[in-house]
## 1
Amino acid sequence: MADYILAIDQGTTSSRAIVFDKRGSIVSTGQLEHEQIFPKAGWVEHDPKEIWRNTGEVIGQALGKANLTRHDIAAVGITNQRETAVVWDRTTGEPVYNAIVWQDTRTQSIVDRLAADGGVERFKQQVGLPLATYFSGTKIVWILENVPGAREKAEAGDLLFGTTDTWVLWNLTGGVDGGVHATDVTNASRTMFMDLETLQWDDEILAAFGVPRSMLPEIRSSSEVYGVANEHSLLRETPIAGILGDQQAATFGQAAFEAGEAKNTYGTGNFLIFNTGEEIVHSKNGLLTTVGYKLGDQPVHYALEGSIAVTGSLIQWLRDNLGIISSAAEVETLAKSVDDNGGAYFVPAFSGLFAPYWRPDARGALVGLTRYVNKGHIARAALEAIAFQTRDVVEAVNADAGIDLTELRVDGGATANDTLLQFQADILGVPVVRPVVAETTALGAAYAAGLAVGFWADLDDLAKNWQEDRRWTPSMDDAEQARLVRNWKKAVTKTLDWVDDDVL
Ligand SMILES: Nc1ncnc2c1ncn2[C@@H]1O[C@H](COP(=O)(O)OP(=O)(O)O)[C@@H](O)[C@H]1O
Ligand SMILES: O=P(O)(O)OC[C@H](O)CO
């Protein structure tokens, strides 16, 4: 058998291809950022064709750097930014509109309309999610209602919907020439349309949204052969054998396979996933219920999730919108130029507040300002905001699960930041642990693909690959921790009730 697995990680800011060996070590990487399109306040789009072009290029980069060909690749795994909705014409392969990204809040009026009949909890028992702009469902509705001709074409069966896993899979397996239109249970669980018990699309919910079932991909497990790459791909004939939404993939890559295990990923947003095993747990504290993974015919694993919309993207905002840093890494140097936050608290409710608050009416606020506060304090407040938001989510997990997490496994781009992770340990009061392979998202997709084709034998085989790289131990005294948390919670209250009909 070939010696490597290739994972495609189609993320919010970039697309990557990463080649892994049997030990789960990175052999080579290709990466390209794509344009973030902000047509109006609150709107966020990507160009699906740019994403597909970049995917092809990064595959070439990753193979080229390691001098590999398709013959060296045993299988391909796909992982992706979740919820982001692409709708395209099945006969031409052309998207009818840009991808509407998970952070986009334009569909609030559609949410309100659907909620009129029973509040945002209307479908929650069945799908595990509150009605919110975050999930794919209302984004599809927006496209059907706002793109000329889309509704008619969809009713005629000519349009397909997919999250970006499906978009990549369909194109990779041939597109208009017989592309496979499928997704996995984890991605399907983020649409609002999948019943958590049956793991199938629910016709009543689809009728309530007015979305034709013919647009939707087939729901498959996270680890099985979906198809092979088509003849135009560098990977032609290679099986595509794993799909997981990126946060579930990171959980899998962290080897958090069993109930009670968790991870927190620090990327564009932060996402804490807590494995609840074969049990569907409904949160009383603002967490989502989602699918963790499903390997072929084996039982499904569910999870609780704390999704935070803005964390790493706040650092990008300091770089791109304020210009006070020139790279994300520089935020650490700037934050270290001061001893503390100088009294400033930054609540980045740029897309409203996600877990555990779910307040679409919130908008960002920087509070506690005096003439003393300088850009170092603002950088510090931004990093602290990432950790405070995570603490809010950990509190919710502990309350729902009736436990106290004793340590937090972390990964993602922002875990390169030592100051952030020390503050995270301090404000949580438990150790924070980072594995050697911080690219756990791609690794999880590689694992799912490798299991399906026998490259790895079983979960024990994978768990052996997990290795600790570094650990941050709490050192803040309790009184200081309590003071900071109290001020943070006060700052959160200042962001609420901001959006009304007159304000974007
Ligand atoms: N040293 C750093 N300190 C803080 N944030 C960082 C640092 N390096 C990268 N980031 C943030 O991490 C994010 C990128 O992480 P990544 O895991 O690649 O994200 P994604 O998968 O969401 O595209 C960016 O939002 C960036 O601002
Ligand atoms: O692409 P990321 O890492 O920002 O992840 C996005 C999440 O999947 C959104 O739910």
## 2
Amino acid sequence: MAASGIKVISPWRLFRFVRASQVFRIPGVQLHTTGALMGASVEDFNNAKAQLGTLKKDPGNHVKLKIYALFKQATQGPCNTPKPGMLDFVNKAKWDAWKSLESVSQEEARQQYVDLIKSLVSAEGPAVATPPPESAQAFQSLLVTTEDGITTIRFNRPEKKNAITLDMYKELIDALHHAGKDDSVITVMTGSGDFYCSGNDLNNFTGIPQGGIEKMAKDSGELLKHYVKAYIDFPKPLIAVVNGPALGVSVTVLGLFDVVYATESATFHTPFSQLGQSPEGCSSYTFPKIMGNAKASEMLLFNKKVTATEACNLGLVTEVFPDGSFQSEVWTRLKAYAKLPPKSLALSKQLIRSKEKEKLHAVNDAEVERLIERWLSDECMQAIMNFFQAKPKL
Ligand SMILES: CCCCCC/C=C/C(=O)SCCNC(=O)CCNC(=O)[C@H](O)C(C)(C)COP(=O)(O)OP(=O)(O)OC[C@H]1O[C@@H](n2cnc3c(N)ncnc32)[C@H](O)[C@@H]1OP(=O)(O)O
């Protein structure tokens, strides 16, 4: 977004409407021209620029072009840059818009800019304090933000290495559903603190609820199924920014992400047999597909912990970055991805995913069925007791 508030717009749409009308008449917006020659102050101008960012409704490309042209005229005077080529639709339209104002003085352009923004703000009606989205308010163990076209879902229990509690699974499902529908272009998952995520919170299996242990296993199975489903069906590009060690279910679902970036010191560990459990997150299907049976078995059967570089060589991780520059390099790249055309990205992702959605749902169902049995097994109960008694590190 430039200082004028102009977003990148589809060249084809822009081309069509600019050809249709070179005259800026803006339907639905009453221009309060307070007299161009009076001249708005620099402060008014700066306030208007700030107000532009608070508009809730997209004013449309036509108006955005007008805003752009007035901004340029007000700040730089008449258009003095070479005319872009005919096929450079966006820049050509912007250039034409600016050029068309060459007889307007800078002071007058400033006033028109202020008037136009005022009109747009008043057309939106009185400012009502909008509460943050429901999901953003409700989260206890996640930090969810949307900025620069990126919705970031951050595991946020650093004191427990971001282990996932039962409530946190529900929050993650909500956050993913919300991110799938919001106006962000890509969604990113990452962790607070030094871990990406230590997987399932082992306390999830310690209290025996009313209804007994069988009901607990069945309910947990349902929750896990919905959790994994949210990844299988996620409609936009989903990117993991693995900022530290990752364990268990936070690793297995990585096979359902579109891109996985990892810091050099991250590790990937799926210690299921050690815990008397079995793979989930569709990893019994995605891991062999990604890395071949032999390597997948080392991870899923024999608890092999792999480094970020090893995970990259196996194909589970897309790229590894040095610890020192991880955040800056990755976020620069993600911000650039978020400027790509959203529909094209989502549709391309869906084409890739649609080929195996049915298969993935079937795998999820089968894995959950097996896990419900496992959670009731002596092997699993013993492993969890061991963790809390002796606290052996995985
Ligand atoms: C609806 C249910 C779906 C279930 C899906 C099936 C999912 C399966 C899995 O995800 S399997 C993997 C489960 N994860 C683990 O077994 C990890 C257990 N934790 C550890 O081994 C270690 O804590 C560690 C290696 C992650 C980190 O070690 P270290 O750096 O030495 O830190 P601490 O151990 O001191 O940890 C700090 C604090 O956090 C607590 N904690 C960390 N991870 C978990 C966890 N997964 N479950 C519960 N608690 C966890 C740890 O106990 C410490 O707590 P304390 O400060 O002592 O109160």
## 3
Amino acid sequence: MAHPSPPVIGIIGGSGLYQIDGLQDVTWRKVSSAFGEPSDELCFGTLQGTPVVFLPRHGRGHKLSPSEINFRANIDALKRVGVTDILSVSAVGSLREDLPPGTFVVVDQFIDRTFARTKSFFGTGCVAHVSMAKPVCTRLGDAVMSAMQGLDIPAKRGGTYLVMEGPQFSTLAESELYRSWGCSVIGMTNMPEAKLAREAELCYASVAMVTDFDCWHPGHDAVTVDQVIAVLTANAGKARGLVKNVVPLLGKHAGPCRHGCQTALDHALITAPEARDPAVLQRLEAVAGRVLKR
Ligand SMILES: CSC[C@H]1O[C@H](OP(=O)(O)O)[C@H](O)[C@@H]1O
Ligand SMILES: Nc1ncnc2[nH]cnc12
């Protein structure tokens, strides 16, 4: 059995989402990771009796820029406390006219243009290659879509999230390039987060909340943080409603995901057992213990 059932939900909050309102029995607790410091303490609580673990991606007060986030520590820490499913919530710019600010996009693909981040738990001493063909968990995506019903949220299932390094926003030429690639939205954080969740055999889905039209749109020639925060604030109630609905929905699922997220490492390890570095294996205990022990 890959995981105890039911799923344990972890929420990674992005810009503007530094706590979950309405969470009961809340405690913030420092959780150590073998990969350094997570962005903040983890927030443990329950929503209608269902346990939830929350982590603000940039830390409370938004202290970390996208390039400074220790994505490995965040995912490792969430796995260490028993999280099986990660719902990522992010602010994004829209690259399409039909995705105006206020739209919630449950993205299903990513293009990773980041270049200054550590992107894998694996490497010298234990090499692995997981599939990223389908980076988003269908079960989790289904639950998010159901949770939005009745909330009056303009929602779209599917779309490609272009992940840029930042912290500066894009040039017009870059924005037009990503549009020509057919991308739907742009942000700075979902990679390597999604890659690391897959390596850690965690289900992952991302709700991309559109806050702006980046800089390509004739009516909006630049994006500003003030604009992003204003749209996020206006949509905070809807984001809260979504989290409130999705947690009990997911909590009702019994057993592991059937889409392969929780067995991603079954055919991924390539380093011969006798060539593996024991110190590296120890660091990988939470992430990959399931396959390293057998
Ligand atoms: C505040 S605008 C730019 C900032 O917002 C997004 O963060 P997140 O994905 O954590 O919501 C974007 O990726 C940038 O980090
Ligand atoms: N236009 C944009 N580009 C990158 N990240 C963003 N986050 C919110 N809006 C964004």
